[in-house]
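Suppose a colleague, Dr. K., hands you the sequence of a protein chain of 599 amino acids and asks what its three-dimensional shape might be. Before reaching for any lab equipment, you can write down a predicted structure in token form. Begin with the sequence itself:
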Amino acid sequence: MNARSTSLAAALLAGGLLGAGTPATAQEAPRIHDVQGTGRVSGMVGNRVSDVPGVVTGVRAQGSSRGFWIQDPQPDGDPRTSEGLFVYTGERTPDVRVGDSVAVTGSVTEYYAAGEGETPDTTPNQSITEIVDASWRVDGTAPVPAPEPIGPDSVPEAYAPTGNLDELPLDPGRFALDFYESREGMNLQVADARVVGPTDSYGALWVTSKPQQNAGERGTTTYTGYDRPNSGRLKVESLGAPVPKANVGDQLAGATAGPLDYSTFGGYVLEATALGQHLPVGVRPETTRPQRPDELAVATYNVENLAATDDQAKFDRLARGIAGNLAAPDVVSLEEVQDDNGATADGTVTAGATLRRFTDAIAAAGGPRYEWRQIDPADGADGGEPGGNIRVAFLFNPARVSFVDRPGGDAGTPVRAVPDGGQAALSASPGRIAPGDEVWRDSRKPLAGEFRFGGRRVFVVADHFTSKGGDQPLHGRFQPPQRASEQQRAGQARAVRGFVDELLGVDPAAAVVVTGDFNDFGFSPALAPLTDGGALSSLEGQLPETERYSYVYEGNAQALDHVLTSRGAGRADYDVVHLNAEFADQTSDHDPQLTRLHP
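The predicted structure, expressed as tokens, is then:
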């Protein structure tokens, strides 16, 4: 087999698990639908085919995965068999144009893009049926097959069947992933599509063909449950003019059309030969209201690997967000603060230079002169970008709130709840929660701080749970996808909840705020230990389901950041301040959020 083939495809073929159509006879040149077959994996894998006819619908002339798409203008009528196919030429730019009528000779393969530590047999990604080691003959020109329109009712609501999709028959009328697979390589079109994922640094964005599907007020498509992955989402890249710098809610007016591909990064992607006109809708970054004198404002903000080595522009934009958009909260929980030399791995763990530059920038932006508290981690122990030593930290405005400093907090000493005059106190402030527990391996340790506001003690816990790295993708061939990283986050949630229970065991009326980047959704079972029994309440319940988001990933607006409070924290006014995640020009990939309390 060609190097772009896989042993998995060969095994499926040998085992009779392909569900493929009948190959063409030796007397006939096979058609594209013969090569594609009726399943995900072609029944002709490993075969050499000659003179497969088609019309060129798109050419990829850049990068290391060059090639072109062809489509048969004479479909077979079977809804399971695609009439489109990719011809892979590697680093060789193919000498064809859209509209050429060609006959292609080469080997049939299924290409699985394998990530780090994966093989074609183990990767959760789906495959792409291709012809490799290809030669072709141009027989003239022909009308390009008209793109199939994809509208609100085209793609099924149900996302995928259960099991290894490679081994299942296609049911394109019932499942979204089967619908897309049955059109792999074909010319498709979305019209007047709303942008649901902003243009990224690679020149791609996300649209939806289902504008009403879990639509938010600002143009999002919101991820509201594992059983609602939003089947209308579709990635768009361009084979011609650059994709415009679009924000969530913008529109690509008119037709966006091209052949349908599959990518490790997002699944099915429309490789556009025509882009709709970019119509901005004018969604602006939000600004929250200032807190009143009797309200304690506590915010959380993932500042995305902020390091002293960053350009001043990043500090200034983040600072304007704190001073202006967040209206200068009294306490800010920061996530992803790096050490003083960023990703340089030389043993440096201090972050004073990073935090000094940030607080100086906030003051220059018209905000208060914040002070900070944090604990340096052990070198290389807390995950994140290698060498960066990210950690959580507190900023606080000493004109509005005081920090209770209690000695003893360091990278390895666990903080405890202790009695103090009939109230709860911390054994060390700031202090880290259970830093030696295995649940925090290669992950940030939560930081607990004791504050005073208007004579009342308030305990704030800053969190940054372990990432979703290693989880199987929504668009992958294993359904439902396994979420292996949940186990560690569930342990982390139990550890944080155990500490909160210690505080409330000393003083049931203690005011506790648990906040940060939890790297999971409010509906995830991994976070359930935080709220089980009602000792803590998640404030996202104050918002409609479609407005619960602080992050946009693959066109799904989703909530990874959260604020939870105890009863003793009093009445809470909660706000997610959208100023990053929806925008192509963003200074962090997370939106901050805050609560205003009456402890």
